[in-house]
Write a structure and sequence with these properties.
This protein has 191 residues and is an alpha/beta fold. 25% of the residues lie in helices and 23% in strands.
Length: 191
């Protein structure tokens, strides 16, 4: 991966570094009745810098103080629920402490938070007992899911890494030359 990054950067010479975009395309072979691909990936540097986190936890508790120290923009339980009902949602990610899970369920906020993709759940790992680890993961991570919802994973066929103006490099380890006379042995020694 590191050497591929050097090649991709070489193709980007002369372009402003702020506009470089790296893309990873994953080609899968699958049945249509399989599960939907959806997860979170954490890269060495944050992908998005506009992450604002809200934390549902007991009012006036040590958890509330901890969440505020971690940088949460909205913290609380009933006060936060009321703010959400009024349409004031200052966050784009929401986590819930396990002790407040029942209060969240009783608040009936699924119709408001669900369509926005903000409803905390065990499946998305946004209901947690460790606020610090979850907040740090959400800040440095980005979520991905399949585009059209028709590709369901069975086996990974190929992964290609490319940049905005550079070529695509296959990461599956196989060699597919554009010149039929070129063989893998030619790349192992001086030509």
């Amino acid at each position: 991966m590191a050497s591929l990054n050097h090649y991709l950067r070489a193709y980007e010479v002369g372009r402003p570094p702020a506009v470089v975009k790296y893309e990873v395309a994953v080609k899968v072979r699958t049945n249509k009745s399989g599960p939907v691909i959806r997860n979170r990936i954490r890269l060495p540097f944050p992908v998005k810098t506009d992450t604002r986190i809200g934390v549902i936890c007991s009012e006036d508790s040590p958890l509330m103080v901890e969440a505020q120290q971690l940088g949460a923009v909205a913290v609380g339980e009933e006060s936060l629920f009321e703010s959400i009902r009024q349409g004031n949602i200052p966050f784009n990610k929401l986590i819930c402490h396990v002790d407040s899970q029942d209060a969240l369920r009783k608040a009936n906020l699924g119709k408001i938070l669900g369509p926005k993709g903000l409803m905390p759940s065990q499946k998305t790992k946004t209901i947690t007992s460790d606020l610090k680890a979850t907040v740090q993961e959400l800040i440095g991570a980005d979520e991905y899911k399949e585009r059209a919802g028709v590709n369901h994973p069975k086996a990974l066929d190929e992964v290609v890494l490319s940049s905005t103006n550079g070529p695509g490099f296959s990461l599956n380890g196989s060699f597919h030359p554009t010149d039929p006379a070129l063989k893998p042995e030619h790349l192992q020694s001086v030509m």
